[in-house]
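pasting for ref
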Amino acid sequence: MDNKIKCVVFDLDGTLINTLTDLQNACEYVMQKHGYQASWTENDYKRFVGNGIRKLVERVFEHSLSEEALDKYLAEFLAYYDKTKLDNTDAYDGIKEQLAALKNKGIKIAVVTNKAEPAAIGILNTIFGKGTFDLIVGQREGLPTKPDPTGTLLALDTFDCTPEEALYFGDSNVDIQTAKNAKIKAIGVTWGFRSREELEAEGADVIIDHPSQIAKFF
C-alpha cells in the first residue's frame, strides 16, 4: 500500500478490456475484401496489437502495402470496427470493482491508449459508464503514440500529479516502455495480450496476474 499515490494511468486494450476478437474480425474483414487469406492466429493478433491501428493493419498485411493502400485499408478497417467494436468486447473480470475501489479512495484515473480517441471514449463510456474515468487520452492528431510519454505526462499534468505519485498499469512491452519514459512505476499485467516473460524482459517494476491485485497498491 502506498498512500502517496494520487493518480493511476491504465492502458486500454489487454488491460481494462479484451478487444482482441473485434480487432481480429475487423482485420479479417478487410483482408477478405481484398482477396487476402485470413490465416493469422489469436496469438498472432496478440503480438500485432499495441502500437495503434495503423501498425495493426500494416502487420496483418505483412508490411506489403504502399502508403496509399495502407491509408485506404485503414479507413475500411476503421469504418467496420466502428460498427462492430462492442460485439465481443468487455471488461476483464474484476476490473469494474477495482475502478470503483480506486474512485472511493479519491484516486484520479486516466486511460492512455494508442486506440483512436473517439473509439476509446465510446467503448469506455458504454462498458463502464460516463464519468468513470477522469481523463481519456487516445490517438489523436498531433499527439505521438506510446511508448512516447506525451499522453501519459499530459494525464499527470491534468491531475497535478508527479511521476512519483502515479502508477501505470499495462499488459505489453509498449506499456512498460511508456511508463519508464514517463518515469512512472510500471505495473505489468499478465491477463492481457502479452506474456509474463515479455513484461519481465522489458523491466516491469511489478507484475500481477489478476485484477484483484490492483487494490494492494493503495
